[in-house]
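In this supplementary section we document a worked example of the pipeline. Step one takes a protein sequence of length 112 as its only input; no multiple sequence alignment statistics are reported here. Step two produces a three-dimensional model, which step three serialises into structure tokens for compact storage. The input and output of this example are shown verbatim.
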Amino acid sequence: MKRLIYIIGVTLLLAACGQQQRAKSVVKDFMATYQKGDVSYLDFSDVDSTKVLTDSLIRVMQQQAGKDVTFQKRTSTTLLLIRAKYLLDDDTCSTTFYLDPSTMGVVACKQN
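The serialised model returned by step three reads:
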């Protein structure tokens, strides 16, 4: 019985680590596409989830990002979120990215 619990725990841990790394990779790719300056990453938060973002709030965040930024369509009521802290040229910035859990595409983002 202890062995089964150990195996389940290790499996869940590995799955969470994989999701964390995939979210970081998606955010870095997204920023590389739309960055305006030299970016150096300082830190990423742990991946979390949220259900409180409405479609209208997502549209506002998308509009604030600009017309030239393309976002993934939202396919789930639950979104993953990850916060990136980075240096943009000489300024320290922080942005929260909201990802679709099934496609791991960026649905919206906001500057903190």
